Amino acid sequence: IGSLTAWTLPEKPRNACNPCSPVSAWQNERLTFLCQFNMCLDAYFKRADGNLQKFSYFLQKWYFKHPEARPIKIAYTGTESLERLGIKDNQQPPQQPESGWFVLGINELYSNSKQYEWLKQFEPIDMIGYSIYIYYITTEDANRVRRKMGLPEIEATTSEQNETNSPL
C-alpha cells in the first residue's frame, strides 16, 4: 500500500468533454485509476486475512516461550480461539489500571468503547507483528496512572515485591 499513496486521481482538464457524452477521456482515466485502486485494496485485505492466522500462531508461540507471563489477560480479535491455541487460563484485561501481564490487539486498544484507554499511557514491552501489543505493568506504574484517574491505589503482589529484574 506504500505505493498507493503516490497515486493521484487525474485532474479534470479545463476543456473537458461535454458531460453529456457517454465517456470522456478524463472519466476513462478516472475509472481506470479506481479499478486499479480497488484491485490493490482487494489484494491487501486478502493478505491481511492470511496474516490474522499468522498472528494467532505468533501469539501462541510467544505465550509458550514466556511462561513467566502468567497469569496473562488477553483481548484480541483473531481467527483462532485462545483455547484452541492452548491458552486456557486467559481472562479479559481490566478496564482500570492494575498490575500484571496484558496482551491487546490494536482493535481492542483503539476501540470506540475506550475500555482499555488506560493502557495507552504505557509502552508495550513486546509486540507481535504490528498489531498485537504486550504489556507488563508493575503495581507502581499502575498506581501512578490510578492517581491520575482519581482511583484508589492497589497493593503490590508478593511476587512483585521479591522481583528485582525486568520481566523480559
Which parts are unreliable, with pLDDT below 50 for 5 consecutive residues or more? 15-21, 41-50
H/E element sequence: HEEHEEHH
**What share of the residues does DSSP label as strand, in percent?**
5-15%
Structural class comes to: alpha+beta
- Radius of gyration equals 24 Å
**Strand arrangement, largest sheet?**
1-2-4-3
Mean pLDDT: 76
Count of helical stretches: 4
List the helices and strands and how they pair.
Elements: H1 25-65, E1 72-75, E2 100-105, H2 106-109, E3 126-128, E4 132-137, H3 139-149, H4 158-162
Parallel strand pairs: 1-2
Antiparallel strand pairs: 2-4, 3-4
Description of the molecule:
The protein starts with 24 loop residues before the first helix and ends in a 6-residue tail after the last helix. Strand 3 (126-128) and strand 4 form a beta hairpin. It is 36% helix and 11% strand. With 168 residues, the protein is of the alpha+beta class. The longest helix has 41 residues, at 25-65. The protein has a four-stranded mixed beta sheet. The chain is globular, with a radius of gyration of 24 Å. It contains four helices and four strands.
